[in-house]
Protein: 4-diphosphocytidyl-2-C-methyl-D-erythritol kinase
Organism: Microbispora siamensis
Amino acid sequence: MSAITVRVPAKVNLQLAVGPLREDGYHDLVNVFHAVSLFDEVTAAEPADGDLSAAPLRVRVEGDHTGEVPVSDDNLAVRAAMALADRAGRSYRADLLIRKSIPVAGGMAGGSADAAAALVACNELWGLGLPVEDLMEIAADIGSDVPFALLGGTAVGTGRGERLAPLETAGIFHWVFALADGGLSTPRVYGECDRLREEAGVAAPTPAVSEALLAALREGDAKALGQALSNDLQPAALALRPSLADTLAAGRAHGALGALVSGSGPTCAFLAESAERAHELAGLIKDVDGCRAVVTAHGPVPGATVAG
Ligand code: C5P
């Protein structure tokens, strides 16, 4: 094989319960991940030029608003491919092409998704045949959200979000995502969450999974799911980007079953009762101030998968 393309979904957090700051700089979480049908594609190809002096791993990025995506070794997909080569115990070469549809720095784990896709693509391109358990381990070292992008579906993450247990769900849920101009830095949003808690004199609670949320997922009950959605990072994201409050309010006013900031934001997620309602809702939200674009998607969908 001279090129492998992998399709990988975005995620929305159905529950993000943030515990205390740990010694290692991370927070203990209960993080209910849900993979939605908004995809990036990563192609790993054997370098055509045979230029052995070039960097062993090169990356290009295509798509809208990709200016902030690094095309250096800081790119999470490059780091993932390097970590995979390390695990295999030798150096390998690949040209990576990332085609982005997942918003950049949007709270939908786009960078993590690309890292997961690069692991699957390079594992195949280089004929390593590493089992998914090994890819999961490498993924957890790259970032807290990377293992879920391999797994997909709906799952609860504990620890810093990397220890995953798949969840049983029924049916399909329909979503609208309101994309905002510019991203929000994840460490900054976590820091603001700590600061707001300190200012209010509130101790960080021990995170626990919502039983109401689990029941709604099991039963495929979109109305109950809408009421059970929660995100402890939302007050921090709203403090850093006050215009998101208007976006959320517009979705609620137009009948969304639930509305929340996705992860660390600034993307806002709205649950609708059907695909048709999601399209209507998207049309009603798109002109709200601070909203750059809207997209509809459904979930759950599978994790990183070789395309075609
Ligand atoms: O794991 P990842 O590199 O994606 O995390 C990015 C940043 O998000 C971390 O550096 C940390 O500031 C914050 N984070 C956290 N607690 C978690 C996950 C992420 O504080 N459980």
Remarks:
- DSSP finds ten helices and twelve strands in the chain.
- Residues 25-27, 29, 143-145, 160-161, 186-187, 190 surround cytidine-5'-monophosphate (CB under 6 Å).
